[in-house]
Fold these 4 entries.
Entry 1:
Amino acid sequence: MRIATWNVNSIRSRIDRVVSWIDRNDVDVLAIQETKCREDQFPGLELASLGYEFAHVGVNQWNGVAIISRVGLEDVERSFSVDQPQFEDLLEPRAIGATCGGVRMWSLYVPNGRTLDHEHYAYKLEWLARLRESGEQWLAKDPAAQIALTGDWNIAPQDEDVWDMAVFEGKTHVSPAERAAFSAIVDTGYADVVRPHTPGPGVYTYWDYTQLSFPKKKGMRIDFVLGSPALAERVQGAWIDREERKGKGASDHAPVVVDLAD
């Protein structure tokens, strides 16, 4: 079984690339972030022509997440628990879960944080705390559960995950609090199942569109698949499709792929 995650940065703009990529790479389940469309605008007919079902949550031209699958799509949840009244005005369509071929897939688009003194940064940390609590509960309920927490985490957990730490000094994505929030989820039992197969430094999943970041190799590793213990045991290989970042109309993120044993 092959699962993947990809921040496509507008599904309507890149549906042809998505359809071509999943067909070419024989992908069974794809978690998508930044769909940037309402649910009624999601281009599902193109995916259905290849035998994929989909579940999507989105409200406007920002955020939005989806899961597409050709191995079943059951028990869809369009959020995990983020019951925090102080952030009610900031809550956005950033999480969707579904069971696909026995794997509980989550497509996650973690808040950016913007700046260290911005309310969105506090929202980001609280969002991650709620994800950790939910993930811990899922494993406590069923230690043998096959769970994949996939998506754009907007965190570079290690120094080698950015092209130059000096550039990011005092900024989001690399702050101690964000890294601690990421580590807390790992500590509950979820392993980064991609890094062992794609060691760094210089291995990235995102390159900004500006200042020739991609050809200059000025990137970040911020897209991850964190697997529960039972899922991690099934991982046979993983890779980042850097080639898909090339060419006209590419997303600024590359797909991240994980192969699971049957």
Entry 2:
Amino acid sequence: MTDTPLSGRIALVTGASRGIGAATAIALGARGAHVVLTARTAGGLEEVEERIYEAGGSATIAPLDLTETDGVARLATAVSERWHALDILVLNAGMLGTLAAVPAIDMKEFATLMTLNVSAQAALIASFDPLLRHSDGGRVIGVTSSVGLAPRAYWGAYGASKAAFETLLASYGEEMRNITRIRTAIVDPGATRTKMRARAYPGEDPASVKPPETVAERIAELAVAGFDANTRIRVD
């Protein structure tokens, strides 16, 4: 690799076994970052790790269900034992859940969705905050959805989780902006060719929407260039 602006940087990407998370991990690795890959599926993580190494980068896999009690804390401890700081945290993991009218929401599934899409994200921010503070320019980038800002029929559960996630991350950004070098950004990927998209729009031609690599390149560009506090972008 000849262009490695993130050389020496440590990045952690959640939901890194496929889709936007995998593509983002590969894009960060291509720019020189050592990428910690986490997701539930070890096989998928191993494939992404191999692609990063084949491109001349480096990565570490950390299979983990983010909804497990103390799972995030254990991950943070493992990372802190190996590295002094975390420079880039990409909060990409999430679940869609069942699209349904609000009165028909399955409350058990809703609890699981909020645990992953909101509570686990809060745990990630809290657990990695000390390592982000040790970076000379910590960056936290959260992947969201347009339904977090613009409510849509039958998307109430997922939209509510993304609205909560955006508020959580933006609040952290406001708290950090004047006392640390940590900056936060929210990325709305727009229509992207992922398994989640295919579930939500089963009749859609996958070729009619952009590949996850397009979103990943934008996220990687943000990580390299830096950004102002509480940046929000949409990738069209």
Entry 3:
Amino acid sequence: MKKTAIITGAANGIGKAVAALYASKGFQTVLADIDSENGEKLQASLKQKNLDALFVRCDVSDPESIDHLVKTAKDQFGRIDVLINNAGISDFAPPDELTVEDWDRVLNTNLRSSFLLTRAAIQLMKENGGGSVVNIASTRALMSEKNSEAYAASKGGLLALTHSMAVSYSGENITINCISPGWIHTGDYEKLRDIDNSQHLSGRVGKPEDIARACLFLTQPENNFINGENLVIDGGMTRKMIYEH
């Protein structure tokens, strides 16, 4: 029986690469995003390749929209095996100018959504005898830029949510892991400068496909000894000491 994967934020960037990879590996792939135009384009593109793909418009900051997403996946495919919590937004502003509404919008989109969606999807994973969840955080959970409080807090919360839920569901044959990407370029890679690439220990800026392959690795059943972990994928930048001269 084919397995089913839900990818949030699937219409663009990292999520698009993740969705395309899972579809190419034979998964029934649910493309969840608030961006209907690009989500439907991706669905059409994958279907042209005879791959199973279903776009579902979903605002992950809305609990009712999350319930609709899970119900649609169940009704269409009957199961959920993999969940990639990738949807996220950023709103950089000085702390004394950041409104409560903007703070809540970032936290609800980036953090609360992952809790609610994971909790809902796991009920179906239990029926299948197990499954895997990957939360997409950021190296900003570990190091900061100016005026990134809401974003950093939401991504740091994802790290804690990952290991806490991994413990809570440890008896259900369900792995819950996290990936913290660094600079992943989603635009024209050829327009990057030499310094953009050379400053990384790996000699290049990251690509969405780097994160997609890591998601696939973490959700393969034979890799279930990796659980509750945060995998930093940043070309080595968080390991590099930088001094201003």
Entry 4:
Amino acid sequence: MNPLSKILFLSSALFFLSCSPQKTTAEPKVVYKTDNLSVIQLSDDIYQHISYLNTESFGRVPCNGMIVKDGNETVILDTPTDDKSSEELISWIKSSLHAKVNAVVATHFHNDCLGGLKEFDKNNIPSYASNKTIELAKEAKANVAGHGFNDTLTLNAGKHKILIKYFGEGHTKDNVVAYVPDQKAMFGGCLIKEIDATKGYLGDANVQAWSGTVEKVKAQYPDVKTVIPGHGDVGGKELLDYTIKLFRSN
């Protein structure tokens, strides 16, 4: 290749790179980890938090939640499983993300969603749950969120809207799903299963309704790219399909 050709080639390559869309999201990576709590960054503004629940039937179970961040604001979906882990999470958000927590939402009434709620109360962080969740939590003598809503709730973390919606019964009578439209990211909670998961705990479930409820979720958010289940590995829309198939026979 002669010198003029080399110059033309390099100029063309630089032009192509400058005009190509640049990747703005981070690769998933662990950004915090202790024995009680892990935080995984899934994209620039979406994080998965993982804490642990000791159970008789399933042993020490990792439990997921989601953090949505923009600027110095965050919203958390599901508390960690206890106050100690919640304290760690709130402290990490303040010190590492340099952000405040606008709100925390419990997606159903089990302890893997609201076990650490008292720590949020202690930090004067507003807590939300559906009125169904509040009613069931009171019956179970569990922690109770400070603010209720009926079927839908919209919260904001900076420019990100978080849509929380009840689609029907499944894992529990009250399970809700959170969706961040501009990130195409969903926190499905325990309504959604990871790939190859078993049916899990069914003590409060409506297995007959479960598939139909998830079909409604899939129809409402056809563009979803990131799905965080209540337990296990993050995926995409295939988690919705897997959950529908898992419970369809019932």
